[in-house]
Write a structure and sequence with these properties.
This protein has about 190 residues and is mainly α. Helices cover about 65% and strands about 0% of the residues. The protein has helices at about 10-25, 30-45, 50-60, 70, 75-85, 90-100, 120, 135-145, 150-155, 160-175, 180-185.
Length: about 190
Amino acid sequence: MYLAQGDPSAALARLEPYRQQVEAKNWQDERLKVMVLQAVALQAYGKKDLALKLLGEALALAEPGGFIRLFVDEGLPMAQLLAEAAARGMMPDYVAKLLAAFPGVTDDAGQAPKPSSAAAQSGPLSLVEPLSGRESEILKLITQGLSNREIGARLFLALDTVKGHNRRIFDKLQVQSRTEAIARARELGLL
């Protein structure tokens, strides 16, 4: 949530103790998830070399298990970090496979995102179909960290109605998670 809110420092502060905890318990899948989040947070914090070093460690752990979704779920920031890893020749086969799995993050020629500020270089972002007033309202509540049930209670909506709005929001923003939705909405200037 801290990453989606644009606070990588707070994200890093929360992730490090959690990583120590999962390493102490030898929870390898959770450790991998934390490492991926830390890499994204380090990149957002401006520590690209550290982010790439940690990403390299995560890739080495992830490749034998064939993990893909774990990386793709982090959206464009991870795609950019992986593009930078590819440019530096890090695990080229696995990184290429991961980059190919990112939906909607290739350019018109089908190429992976450019390292560093690829989003900034591609010009202004816009939605194909704008969010409705209700969808914007729900997106703002998602940004505040409210659950679907809490959103429903606040807006006097059934849980299934809130979930339907979430699906439409995700479709319009071309994302697959709440964190990605918040990040994309910020990129688009919707929040």
